């Protein structure tokens, strides 16, 4: 097979690694044995100043519905609460997404289209304590304009909307880490955001759970940020057990770490949408 899912628009859709090429061939040969895992922000939805306005890129939901008719499992794996991803995503009730799942808060929460039910364990006690202390901490650093996002089981401290986002982010790292530690939380750095959450789960755990449930022989995972690194590493480890894995990096100027692990690089949610559509086209033809 040589051209695979290359589209007329661009050649970047072809994996640049032998592992990636093998995995793409495996997807086309055995779609029912394939798990497609997708990060939300920066991958399916553009990153915007107001996180509550991050709607999925046009074309994504339609492409996923088409893919859902072929692939064994599609799952969104996100740091967002499931309810937020559901309302911003518009995945509910879409033809082809009858067996989709959303693993929210790094896999602590879950929604399954097949039952329509959401499982949401109560938030860890430390979140409320950290939330109480954050305003004073931010004020002491002159950064009271930083946006604190309430995420149920986690808190996000955003510096994107400040005059010097990167400088503010760096100034906050240590004091926020100390605050988190006092409340038995950990800090997950993202793009101009520090997220405080409980220990214990990451996107790698979420991917391993999905693989164990589905028995997937091929895993495609797309992400854009440091929070996706454990998922990338989980897929890389699965390759060592004979599974095929395709790592797609939704490129951004703000984060370069995932690039060297990826088999395929696309430029943000717009190209992710194009790539998903091209993959659906290829599966329709296969
Ligand atoms: Mg992301």
Description:
The strands form 2 sheets. This protein has an 8-stranded mixed beta sheet with strand order 5-4-3-2-1-10-11-12, with helices on both faces. A 4-stranded antiparallel beta sheet has the order 6-7-9-8, covered by helices on one side. The chain folds into 2 domains: 18-108 and 201-285, HAD superfamily/HAD-like (Rossmann fold), CATH 3.40.50; 125-198, Trehalose-6-phosphate phosphatase related protein, domain 2 (Alpha-Beta Plaits). 47% of the residues are buried. The chain is α/β, with parallel strands linked by helices and 286 residues long. Strand 4 (109-112) and strand 5 (117-119) form a beta hairpin. 36% of the residues lie in helices and 20% in strands. Magnesium ion binds at residues 39, 41-43, 223-225.
Keywords, separated by commas or semicolons:
alpha/beta; Rossmann fold; Alpha-Beta Plaits; eight-stranded mixed β-sheet; 8 helices; 20% strand; globular; binds magnesium ion
Low-confidence stretches: 6-12
Helix coverage percent of residues? 25-40%
The CATH fourth-level homologous superfamily of the largest domain: HAD superfamily/HAD-like
The overall average pLDDT, rounded, is 92
Structural class: alpha/beta
General shape: globular
Spatial strand order of the main sheet: 5-4-3-2-1-10-11-12
- Give a short account of the largest sheet: 8 strands, mixed
By DSSP, the count of extended strands is 12
Alpha carbon gap, first and last residue: 11 Å
Q: How many whole angstroms does the radius of gyration measure?
A: 19 Å
Known CATH architecture of the largest domain: 3-Layer(aba) Sandwich
For the record, the count of structural domains works out to: 2
What small-molecule ligands were found?
A: magnesium ion
Taken in chain order, the helices and strands follow as HEHEHEEEHEEHEEHEHEEH
Helix count? 8
């Amino acid at each position: 097979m040589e051209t695979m899912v290359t589209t007329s628009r661009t050649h970047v859709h072809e994996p640049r690694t032998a592992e990636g090429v093998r995995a793409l061939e495996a997807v086309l040969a055995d779609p029912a044995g394939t798990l497609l895992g997708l990060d939300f922000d920066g991958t399916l939805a553009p990153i915007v100043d107001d996180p509550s306005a991050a709607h999925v890129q046009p074309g994504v939901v339609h492409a996923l519905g088409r893919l859902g008719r072929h692939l064994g499992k599609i799952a969104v794996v996100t740091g967002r609460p499931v309810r937020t991803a559901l309302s911003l995503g518009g995945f509910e009730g879409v033809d082809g997404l009858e067996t989709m799942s959303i693993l929210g808060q790094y896999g602590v929460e879950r929604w399954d289209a097949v039952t329509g039910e959401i499982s949401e364990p109560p938030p860890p006690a430390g979140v409320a304590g950290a939330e109480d202390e954050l305003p004073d901490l931010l004020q002491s650093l002159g950064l009271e304009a930083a946006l604190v996002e309430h995420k149920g089981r986690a808190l996000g401290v955003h510096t994107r909307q400040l005059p010097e986002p990167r400088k503010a982010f760096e100034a906050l790292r240590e004091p926020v880490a100390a605050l988190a530690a006092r409340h038995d939380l950990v800090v997950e750095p993202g793009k101009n955001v520090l997220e405080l959450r409980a220990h214990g789960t990451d996107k790698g755990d979420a991917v391993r759970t999905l693989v164990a449930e589905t028995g997937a022989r091929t895993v495609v995972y797309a992400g854009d940020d440091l929070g996706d690194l454990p998922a990338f590493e989980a897929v890389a480890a699965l390759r060592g057990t004979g599974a095929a894995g395709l790592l797609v990096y939704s490129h951004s100027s703000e984060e370069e770490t995932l690039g060297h692990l990826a088999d395929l690089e696309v430029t943000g949610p717009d190209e992710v949408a194009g790539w998903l559509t091209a993959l659906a086209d290829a599966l329709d033809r296969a």
